[in-house]
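Researcher: Going back to the complex we discussed earlier. I've cleaned up the inputs and rechecked each line, so this should be the final set. Can you rerun the prediction on the complete assembly and write out the structure?
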Amino acid sequence: MSKILVAYFSRTGNTKMVAESIHQALDGDRTLWPIDKAGSLDDFDLIFIGFPVQSHSVPYPVEQFLKSLPAGMKIALFSTHGAFPQHPMAQEALEYAAVLTGHCRLLGTFHCRGKLSLPALEAFAHSPEHQEWTNMVPSAASHPDTHDLAEAGIFARHMKARSAESGEPSRIKTGRS
Ligand SMILES: Cc1cc2nc3c(=O)[nH]c(=O)nc-3n(C[C@H](O)[C@H](O)[C@H](O)COP(=O)(O)O)c2cc1C
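Model: Rerun complete. Updated structure for the full complex:
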């Protein structure tokens, strides 16, 4: 039976909510870890990794985590962001994360909106480089909502099925077997 890890980074809880929905939607042997508490990754067959978009990119601890993933590991990436879901800004960090995980087998990605706290919005509102996405943020106030979380669950099951179809991990296990 496959072992699945859902690892996430979350500052204000949005990405954590999505990670919990993914974890809940999966049955069988699965583990939910914040990235900073993650243990050995060698025994997992599929790893979901979630993060909030920060300054158009991947938060630094997530960048480090992505780079440290075992080669050939099957992964699925998810993110939350303030920008409109169809806007290129909603995708740019996931695209960068895909580049960082070029040594892994990326099975798919999911993203949804996440609210920004009022103090954070006020702090960014006057900064020109953040203006474009902060202009979109007010309509993210109710996200992630029940629809987002249900979609995350569908994504989780789809990734698990795709992982099973794609056979054994091609990676070489470096830890316990
Ligand atoms: C420091 C900071 C930078 C952010 N930068 C962006 C950004 O570039 N683009 C965007 O769409 N959202 C941005 N956001 C919004 C977050 O991605 C969004 O609120 C996310 O859901 C937060 O997730 P969390 O609660 O898991 O930390 C930023 C938020 C913060 C606090």
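Model: Worth noting: The mean pLDDT is 92.
Researcher: Good, that matches what I expected from the previous run.
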